[in-house]
Amino acid sequence: MSMSLRTRMLLSALLPATLIAVLLTTVFLLREIDNLEQGLRTRGASISRHMATAAEFGIFSGQHDTLAALTAAARHIDPDVRGTAVVDGKGEIMARSGVLDASLWPALGTVDGRRAGPELLVFIEPVLRSNLPVDDIYAGAELKRTVDSAVIGHVVVEFSLRNVSRRSERLVGVGILIALLGAVLGGWLARRIARGVTKPLLEANEVVKRIGEGDLAARMSTETAGPMRMFAVGINSMAKRIGMTQDDMRMRVAEATSDLLKEKEAAVHATIAKSHFLAAASHDLRQPLHALGLLVSGLARSEAAKLEPRLVANIQSATDTLQNLLDAILDISRLDGGNVVARPGNFCLCDVLEQLDEDLSLLAEQKGLQLKVRATKVWVHSDRRIVERILQNLIGNALRYTQSGGVLVSCRRRRKAVRVEVWDTGEGIPEHSTQEIFEDYVQLGNPERDRDKGLGLGLAICRRLADLLNIPLGVRSRPGKGSVFWIELPVVDPVPKSANEPSDISAVEDAMDPGRMSGTVLVIESDALVRTGMERAISNWGGNVLLAVDQADAVQRCRESDLLPDLLICNIRFRSRVGGVGLAQELQRKFPQMAVLLVSADVSEEAQTAARRAGYTLLKEPVPPGRLRAALRHLLAVRAR
Fold this sequence. Notes:
Blueprint: H1 5-61, H2 64-77, E1 81-88, E2 93-98, E3 111-117, E4 120-128, E5 151-160, H3 162-212, H4 229-300, H5 303-307, H6 309-336, E6 345-348, H7 349-366, E7 370-373, E8 379-382, H8 384-400, E9 406-414, E10 417-424, H9 458-469, E11 473-478, E12 482-492, H10 505-510, E13 520-524, H11 528-540, E14 544-548, H12 551-560, E15 567-571, H13 579-590, E16 595-600, H14 605-614, E17 617-620, H15 625-640
Parallel strand pairs: 7-9, 13-14, 13-15, 15-16, 16-17
Antiparallel strand pairs: 1-2, 1-5, 3-4, 4-5, 6-8, 8-12, 9-10, 10-12, 11-12
Helix pairs in contact: 1-2, 1-3, 3-4, 4-6, 4-11, 6-9, 7-8, 8-9
């Protein structure tokens, strides 16, 4: 139970004093009561001994009257004597006086005060026969009693303990009264002393509480503090310093807040500038790369490639590396900028795994590795594009860092989730580096930054994509044994596939065949380098090409040509009043038989939505020549059907 400070101080001062007073009073009472009873025993022993001496002759001579007078006289000697008696050697009472109860007597013998009841004390003294010398019977010699003297009777004296009990009760009452008076006096003194201490303490407690609630003007009164005056002065000084410190802190916080707002504003401007820069860089860099890829593809089919095949292969490798680096950097930038939005849905995991198996099996064969994908029919709820990208990076990394053995992709059901695991037989990862590998540009065992070993961005992108989907991504590894990377996806009930699902890039790639394409392709592109690359690539694939820089130029080229366009390639960010989608729709009104393929350096959600609503296929620049060719063949085949 909680108690106030004043109550605690009173108790701390009062309890010891009260305990000491009670203890001393108890000791005094016990001693006085013992003295009373001891005095009674002393008087009883003295009376019984004197009676035994005086009763010897009466018992010996059988003088009952003398013995009766002796017992009566002994009873009146002390007011506490209740009764006396003289008993002969046979145990018969020869004389008695007062109230006696022989049934309470102990066995006759020497009894120096024994309780025979709650208020009765019995003394028994034997009467011994004296030995008197015969030759000096009248000389007055001293009577001699020895141990061998014969016992001719006993003297019994009963003492009443009633007066002693009354005196003891009076002593107890007086002791209790003294203890109470001492406790009251001690409490009064403790209260007087505690009041002078607790009042300033309670006031200090109230002041501290008010300061804690924000009232920095709260102060203690030093005039009424008494012996605690210095304490009150210290409390007031502390409150003053706290007020000054808080004012200073408020000023500093205000200044820091102002600086933070300025820095935040600068950071917002920097983020906007970065977004603008990346948007511009995305377009300005992807366009030349797109043209470069097409030109290198055309160069690979030219006569010059037969003379310098190694040179052409090196150019192709450098172009691919540059394209992969640009894609990774821009992907990370879009993820960090929040420009990538997850669109979760239900899909069959086996479709994704089978597509990855088909896409990456060639890479595994080129390295002499085995790629085993154990697909499962389980359906999951997530963003299919992002899940496919994560698994593609994990499998690609496993193939890149595995020199012998193979890579296994398996699925393990875990209650309401499925764990997709990518196992490899590579060199493994030290335990202290299992989190470091998910950082940007981190590569283990590649200090020379060999491009063939990757760029160090694949796992960083996987981490960002997993966080975007809010799914776990982990790794277990044993150095020298290999590693396993895994993600977990929530499981849902199977959903029948819709026949009207839009085709994706994988479906486009499935349509690629080794034959030459046929048809007329209209290319509308303002960049001359891209137009040249498109013309060279499509011509090498067997198609006819019509080049234009805008809508009017495209209509004029089609009218001048004897061939009608079977397919249109246009940038979705085309600089016109209607944009690429609107331009394609207007040209389709003039040429209804024409299919449309849109390309863009920045495939944002807005661009994808616009292309999807129009029913057009959208590819991201730079488009690899193989993928562009597959898309063209697919669209031309669909148009022909």
